[in-house]
Amino acid sequence: MRLGVHREDSGMSFVRNAWYVATWAHELKDQPLPQTILSENVVLWRGQDGRVRAAEDVCPHRFLPLSKGRVAGNDLQCGYHGLIFNGAGECVGAPTQETLPDCKIRQYPVYENMEMVWIWMGDPAQANTDDIYDLPEYHQDGWGVAFGDALDVEANYLLLCDNLCDPTHVNYVHPSTLGNPDEINAPVTHEDTSWGVLTERLTPDSAPTGFVASFGSHDGRVDMWQRYLMYTPSISIIDFGATAAGTGSWQEGGDGRIQVYSCHFMTPITETRTIDRWLHVRNFEPADPSVGEQISDQFRIAFAEDKEILQAVQEEETRREGRFKIGLDLDESAGLFRLKINRLLRAETSAQAAE
Model pTM greater than 0.90? Predict the structure, then answer.
């Protein structure tokens, strides 16, 4: 199977009618924040009322980025000649003249959830905050939350998605943390879902991985699971954990059960750059922040290994553009996910053509 992304003649290669994470909520303070998302320059700011707003990062007068200006109450003031724009993209102030200039900049719907600011890059009329991803355990007692980093990867976002549809790579890329020799030939299954693709690998009666050995209380064999929930266009939730062998399953129960949701929110910056903001939610020692930081330290090792691999792949893809890739059985899950992305791209292109 050859992995690929469909590109229409318009050059569209990003799904725009979707919610993406624009930034961590705590990064928005009293200054405007510039971000590039889907190759568009955006400015975000938090108004005096606490609400977040977003607009294209340009003043229509001399094209100075508005992120070079300042927050003025709930609005944004250009740092060149003082034009003021509100959250709807309307010019509401022009200090040097009585008549407001007839101009407007694009505004983007935004919403805060799970301590992240989400942005809608497509048709504002289709933006529905009910569609924003939410992990129930994030809000529940008995679960600890730890925030990671914004991993900057010089690779196309679909290469990251490929990687997060694929449990088989962990033995070779992450041997010291997530890998397990007992898993090398364990079967991998996948399922087409309404929201994306689910890929599973269950490893009963096996030696614990380095991660499970570090954070679990097991002194013998374990039943482990890896469930990769890949949501279109670019959210990955990895549900993994272990119980004492023969005592439970990924669904429930189990002696010494440990379970982690490793959450990745990937935002395409350009065709060859992606920001992966990650956090994790765990069912053990939820009130101890040092445990969350210890987990993050192990994840940083693993994600740095992923980054090195994916950037090398991107570099060779660019150098060898047009060369055919061989396919393996393990590509089926990632291939299905790319097919679903292609369908979304075609649907958006068709809708644009109809308009």
Answer: yes
